[in-house]
Write a structure and sequence with these properties.
With about 140 residues, the protein is α+β, with helices and mostly antiparallel strands. The protein contains three helices and nine strands. A six-stranded antiparallel beta sheet has the order 1-2-5-6-9-7. Strands 4-3-8 form a three-stranded antiparallel beta sheet, with no helix packed on it. The longest helix has 13 residues, at about 80-95. The chain is globular. The protein starts with 15 loop residues before the first helix and ends in a 7-residue tail after the last helix. About 25% of the residues are buried.
C-alpha cells in the first residue's frame, strides 16, 4: 500500500514577504489564511505560574486574501493598560475597526487587556497600520 501524497499548502494570494517585513515577524500559511503570533516581551504570571505565549498571550493576527492585494484581517492585541489608548488611535488612524476590548483573567501580572480588530483593505496598508500599533507595545522583537 502506498502512502498518500502530501497535501501542498494552499497558495496565499498576498505579498507575504512584504507582510513579514512590515510586521517584523514571520507569518505562516494555514488553511488559506496568513497568520502571525506575536508574543509580548515580558512574562505573564498568574497565581505564581508563567502563562506561555501559546496559551493565548501572543497576539494572533490573521490575513485572509480578498483579491487584488486586499485582505480581511482580524486578531487580538494583548496589552497592558497604558498601551490601550495608543493602540486604539494607531488602529483607527490606519482604517482598522476595534470590535471589542475586555480582559480574560482576574489576577494576572501584569494586568492585561485584549482588543479585537477587523478590516478589509490593501494588505500592505493594513500591515503598516498594525505595525504602528505594535510599535506602541512591549513585544518581542
Amino acid at each position: 500500500m502506498e502512502a498518500p501524497a502530501p497535501i501542498a499548502p494552499a497558495e496565499i494570494d498576498l505579498p507575504t514577504a512584504d507582510l513579514d517585513r512590515i510586521l517584523g515577524h514571520a507569518g505562516k500559511a494555514n488553511g488559506g489564511v496568513y497568520q502571525f503570533a506575536i508574543p509580548r516581551a515580558e512574562k505573564i504570571i498568574e497565581h505564581g505560574v508563567e502563562i506561555p505565549p501559546a496559551m493565548g498571550m501572543a497576539m494572533p493576527i490573521n490575513f485572509q486574501p480578498t483579491g487584488n492585494g486586499r485582505a480581511a484581517i482580524t486578531g487580538d492585541f494583548v496589552m497592558i493598560a497604558s498601551e490601550v489608548n495608543p493602540v486604539i488611535r494607531a488602529l483607527r488612524a490606519g482604517g482598522i475597526t476595534v470590535t471589542a476590548l475586555h480582559s480574560h483573567m482576574l489576577e494576572e501580572q501584569p494586568r492585561l487587556f485584549f482588543m479585537h480588530f477587523w478590516a478589509n483593505d490593501d494588505a500592505n496598508k493594513l500591515a503598516t497600520a498594525l505595525r504602528s500599533a505594535l510599535d506602541r507595545m512591549h513585544t518581542k522583537k
